[in-house]
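Exercise 7b. Backbone tokens:
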């Protein structure tokens, strides 16, 4: 009986993830997507935050988005190891954030999960990639196409592959992101 129960659970969880990524993610109503993400996927989504169409997730739970943050279209958000995004964060189109990989030194190629944290008022440019275990500090700016392999200091501007510090942002950031679109 337990084998059937495990198989049924897997069908349920894989089915929910399929519905999330292939149906709900493309539904042109942000309100309905947010209801699904909060209730079925059990994501924590703050007030005034917006997830555009086409976002792909890898697990139920393990995802937190602060208030007044935006995740633009077609982002890959691997939340298996835990993904926490702060408030007033802008994640540009086609960004890839990974929290799971395999240990290349393991004889069994063992999988490993490492949480990613993106602090408040961070900007992540189009097609940037953030690897497992990284923390992006408050107010940091990740340039388009950057490959972030290590922690980013607060207010640092990073670019390149691998990402390197190329400057700093002001420390008195006070903006509030506001997206209010019916269909996106």
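Sequence design result:
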């Amino acid at each position: 009986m337990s084998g059937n129960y495990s198989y049924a659970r897997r069908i349920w969880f894989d089915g929910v993830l399929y519905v999330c990524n292939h149906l709900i993610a493309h539904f042109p109503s942000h309100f309905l997507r947010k209801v699904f993400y909060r209730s079925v996927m059990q994501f924590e989504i703050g007030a005034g935050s917006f997830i555009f169409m086409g976002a792909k997730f890898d697990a139920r739970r393990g995802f937190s988005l602060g208030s007044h943050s935006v995740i633009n279209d077609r982002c890959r958000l691997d939340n298996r190891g835990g993904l926490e995004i702060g408030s007033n964060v802008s994640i540009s189109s086609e960004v890839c954030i990974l929290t799971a990989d395999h240990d290349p030194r393991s004889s069994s190629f063992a999988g490993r999960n490492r949480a990613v944290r993106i602090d408040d008022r961070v900007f992540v440019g189009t097609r940037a990639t953030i690897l497992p275990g990284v923390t992006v500090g408050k107010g940091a700016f990740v340039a388009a196409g950057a490959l972030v392999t290590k922690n980013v200091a607060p207010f640092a501007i990073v670019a390149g592959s691998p990402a390197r510090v190329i400057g700093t942002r002001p420390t008195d950031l006070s903006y509030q992101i506001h997206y209010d679109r019916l269909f996106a």
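Instructor comment: The radius of gyration is 17 Å. The chain has two helices and 19 strands.
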